Amino acid sequence: MLPINCIILQFCTLFISFIIVCSFSSSSVNLTLPHQHPYPEAVAQDVQWRVNMSITRREMLSTRSFIKDQSNCQTGNPIDDCWRCDNNWANNRQRLADCAIGFGRGALGGKGGRIYVVSDSSDQDTVNPKPGTLRFAVIQDEPLWIVFSANMVIKLKHELIVNSQKTIDGRGANVDITGNGCITLQYVSNVIIHNIHVYECKPSGNTVIRASPTHVGFRSKSDGDGISIFGSRNIWIDHCALSHCTDGLVDAIMGSTAITISNNFFSHHDDVMLLGHDDNYAPDRGMQVTIAFNHFGNGLVQRMPRCRLGYIHVVNNDFTEWKMYAIGGSANPTINSQGNRYMAPLEPNAKEVTKRVDTDEGKWSDWNWRTDGDVMENGAFFVPSGEGLTAQYAQASSVEPKSAALVQQLTMNAGVLGGPRDNSLRYNDGPTDGRSSYGSGSGGGDGDYFGMTFASGVPPKPSTTTTIFWSLSFILVLYIFNNHVAL
């Protein structure tokens, strides 16, 4: 039988989680659109809780001798610690699908499907792709976990249109995707892209491309994004290196939601990331994106990200360079910045992290932009607004971000694992491993809220009486717990 203090501790944990969920069922909740999470604040708190748990585990293990044998794991990064501590991960690749955090946590990719090995790097026919190529694999209707037989550069002829339930897993090989169009996720769900170099993506199109075994369609000219997410959900982009594309490195528009962008290395680009199609496009109100553990590095100018509408959680990223601003937005997005490091450039007029795009202060003063535990260096400063001017959203000290000082550690493996994090060597000089040069140029299933669809109707804000009730209840639980521990 469990001791009374253990029982009370478990009860406290459940009670605090319940308070977090209840406390945030206010103006941040919009239940009028499908596929969005009803309590985005609870998701943000869950991410920070997972980070704090991983950091605590590392601190505990650091006192033991076997931590030296686990140098590739127990970093405090909950995504990496989830799978890299398994020395047999190569034989259990689909374990990765259980490791996502944040709004894209429900992205299953090709979990449960066959392992498909890409053995041919060519991309010659967009209508009838050759078996063994990446294009052939990604258009199939069945779930597939796609891996690569060897190092390869895949120079695309046109857009690579990815079907639902696919994982592109580059672990164990050095895989470059470049050329025309690059990666397009359009009206799909459950896609994971992991450990891939993406660079030098150029506009292409006005051609016919196969999107599935049964559908071939005409495609107009693309923008030249590295990864384009269009009307899609349950998407996870992890441990990729992205640079030198014509338009955005990662763009998510047209009602896309349930997205996590994590552990990536962004460099050498102007418009890094766009989240939202248009200020007046109502479906983007349901956009929810987690941006975690990324390194925003050399040669970046702006849009890390640039947001319209929606809820964006920016947590534990390392911003080491921008020339204009880091985070921008319009049309009243919620921006929750927690535990990041912002290192301002030398330019005295570019110290501000934030930018409200083409909007007067009288209109953006009530936008919910917040900074919580961020580290500001070289004169960087974040201009909060709305609820961000107060500490109302920091509901429980047990889940407050304690990881800001560890951002460099949490992001030290950002980018492609086992190779250069920065694509500049590939872009300027071609592949560094002896391959030929290519030239240069410019679902749910978690048993909780994830993946659920909700009907319309926004719950009222909790009253002052309700807030007082929860506060007193929380104090009472702590009092009981402390007295039992003393006994």
TrEMBL record:
One of its GO terms (molecular function) is pectate lyase activity. Pathway: Glycan metabolism; pectin degradation; 2-dehydro-3-deoxy-D-gluconate from pectin: step 2/5. Binds 1 Ca(2+) ion. Required for its activity. Keywords: Calcium, Lyase, Membrane, Metal-binding, Signal, Transmembrane, Transmembrane helix. InterPro entries: AmbAllergen, Pec_lyase, Pectin_lyas_fold, Pectin_lyase_fold/virulence, PEL. It catalyses: Eliminative cleavage of (1->4)-alpha-D-galacturonan to give oligosaccharides with 4-deoxy-alpha-D-galact-4-enuronosyl groups at their non-reducing ends. Residues 421-442 are annotated as: Disordered. The keyword Transmembrane applies. The chain crosses the membrane at residues 7-26. Its EC number is 4.2.2.2. Residues 151-348 form the Pectate lyase domain. Its cofactor is Ca(2+). The keyword Signal applies. It is an enzyme of class 4 (lyase). Belongs to the polysaccharide lyase 1 family. This is Pectate lyase. It comes from Lithospermum erythrorhizon (Purple gromwell).
